Amino acid sequence: MFNELHCLVERARCLVGAFDPDALSGVEARVAVEDFVALEKYAAAGRLLAVGRLDETGAWFGDGTFRDLAGWLASISGTTVGAARGASDTARRLRALPASTDALRAGGLSPAQADAISAAAKADPSAERELLETAKTAGVRGLKTECDRVSAAAASRDAEMDQYERIRAARSLRHRRLADGTGSIEIRGPLDRTAQMMAALEPYERDLFTENRTNGRREHPDAVAFDALVRLCEQAVRDSTAPERKAGSRPLAMVIIHMSKTAYERGWTEPGETCEIEGVGPVPVAVARRMASDAILKSLVVDGVDVTRISHYGRTIPAHLRTAVEARDPVCTILECETSRHLQIDHNIPVAAGGLTELTNLGRPCHHHHHDQKTRHDLRRHGPPGQQQLVTKTEYARLTTEERGPPIEHAA
Ligand SMILES: [Zn+2]
């Protein structure tokens, strides 16, 4: 190929050296101009392709005279560094645009056209084919206008994506309690996501609308949307606690209520007493009670650190209760034992002895304290979670309710 290219250059040199324009007729001169333009076009195309490869290899560096490819190119082609930089940028962009490169090879693109198209196609690769079609019919000016339009559209699309990313990065869901006791959830984020959430509410909203109409109730659409979200959450919890869900997996949603036992029994709080949703804040006892009896929003009534009231007969530990025990007892519940591995949920008073499946009767001792000590010797735990001690059944029976924590052992 090199021989061929060199021969071509040599022949062009001879031809142009001996070229006598005065010998040409007007028509011949016109043909000659057209041929030289074609030659120029192929030469320019070949040069762009070669420059692209040269850029890739870095072989222009030579003895280190030039700082960059554009400097070297300007020096050998007798142009300004700025013009050479434009050419090397075009060459670089063309490496990633095979269709434009093909058109260039076929003599279908001038360097100016290749420059305009490659710049626009870099911003929006999907526009390349259409721009190549435009190049066939529109002049350079028309093509450049079209290329500018493509670049501008791509820039604003990028700006939109930047904007979207900014919104996504700042996404938030804030739940707070307003002064009057209203719960407020503010959700901010990309509109497609919020719209997705709203779309998920629609079937529930339709059902509620029908129900309300049947019952002659008139509700504001915002209120219906609220009820729809509650239903959606209830459904999610039902799904998460459905028996077919694999054992040990945690429920998707859980509400923990911390409250004073006395307040729970009275129905309202008095100074010094607690009734609040964990992580959210105080709620009226009536609300807490309703939640406690709600089959879906599993809740736990807390008295100090002990959770009381949610009792289950039978050995099976519901997922929400298991989660609460795991959260309360991250390490062995026995005093000064820091083991966090192989913890086992234990009924302090065994189910067989009338023990309830409730948080106060459950604990997570380690394998040693559970199996080797408590079960083997039929011992009982007593004291606050994390600081419990093992005592015999007889000793346990002598303890006050306060000392025990868990309820009185039922007659077996
Ligand atoms: Zn232990």
Structure described in brief:
Helix content is 54%, strand content 10%.
The counted number of beta strands is: 13
List low-pLDDT spans: 245-253, 293-299, 304-314, 406-412
Radius of gyration from the alpha-carbon trace, in angstroms: 40 Å
| N- to C-terminal distance | 101 Å
Count up the helices.
16
Overall mean confidence score, pLDDT:
81
Any idea how many domains?
3
Enumerate the strands of the largest sheet in spatial order, edge to edge or round the barrel: 5-4-3-6-7
Describe the structure.
This protein has 412 residues and is of the alpha+beta class. It folds into 3 domains: 2-167, no CATH class; 173-241, no CATH class; 325-412, no CATH class. Helix content is 54%, strand content 10%. It has 16 helices and 13 strands. The strands form 5 sheets. Strands 5-4-3-6-7 form a 5-stranded mixed sheet. Strand 1 and strand 2 form a beta hairpin. Helix 3 packs across helix 4, helix 6 (111-123) runs antiparallel to helix 7 and helix 6 runs parallel beside helix 8. The radius of gyration is 40 Å and the shape is elongated. The termini are far apart. Residues 245-253, 293-299, 304-314 and 406-412 have low confidence and may be disordered. The site of zinc ion has 8 residues, from helix 14.
Features:
16 helices; 3 domains; 5-stranded mixed sheet; 412 residues; alpha+beta; binds zinc ion
List the helices and strands and how they pair.
Elements: H1 2-17, H2 26-57, H3 69-77, H4 81-94, H5 98-105, H6 111-123, H7 128-137, H8 140-169, E1 172-177, E2 183-188, H9 191-214, H10 221-241, E3 257-259, H11 261-266, E4 275-277, E5 281-282, H12 285-293, E6 301-303, E7 306-308, E8 311-312, H13 319-328, E9 346-347, E10 357-358, E11 362-363, H14 367-375, E12 380-382, E13 389-391, H15 393-398, H16 401-404
Parallel strand pairs: 3-6
Antiparallel strand pairs: 1-2, 3-4, 4-5, 6-7, 8-10, 9-11, 12-13
The protein binds zinc ion.
